[in-house]
Amino acid sequence: MHFWKHSKKRNHFPAWIWGVFAGIVFFGLGAAGGQFAVVWRKAVMLCMECIGIG
After folding, report:
1. CB contact at 8 A, 48 and 54
2. What is the pLDDT of residue 9?
3. What span, in angstroms and rounded, lies between the C-alpha atoms of 53 and 28?
4. To 10 degrees, the CA torsion angle through 9, 11, 16, 20?
5. 3 to each of 12, 15, 18, 31, how far by Cα in Å?
6. Residue 11: DSSP 8-state
7. What are phi and psi of 43, to 5 degrees?
8. Is 0.85 topped by the overall pTM?
9. How many Cα atoms within 13 Å fall on the side-chain side of residue 41?
10. Non-local CB neighbours of 54 within 8 Å, separated by 6+ positions
11. What is the pLDDT of residue 50?
12. pLDDT at res. 32
């Protein structure tokens, strides 16, 4: 753990920031491609089946 606290690198983003950025980009691409509606519909149908309404 000593290495991570005293790293000589300056002005570089940590790896988790790149991961968050990539997640936001892919989330946006999926939403733009219409995948949000597909996932939402499946989630609603699953909940309706579990409750027993549908």
Report:
1. yes
2. 59
3. 32
4. -160
5. 15, 15, 20, 39
6. S
7. -65, -40
8. no
9. 5
10. 45, 48
11. 81
12. 92
Task: Using alpha carbons, list the distances in angstroms from residue 10 to 6, 7, 13, 14, 20.
Answer: 11, 8, 9, 10, 20
> Helix 15-32 to helix 35-51 angle, to the nearest 10 degrees?
90
Q: Which two tokens stand for residue 25?
A: 């980009």
CA distances from 17 to 13, 14, 43 (A): 6, 6, 29
Give the residue carrying structure tokens 């940590």.
Answer: 14
Q: 3-53 pLDDT, tens per residue?
A: 556 656 565 678 889 999 999 999 999 999 999 899 889 988 888 888 777
Q: How far apart are the first and last CA of the chain?
A: 53
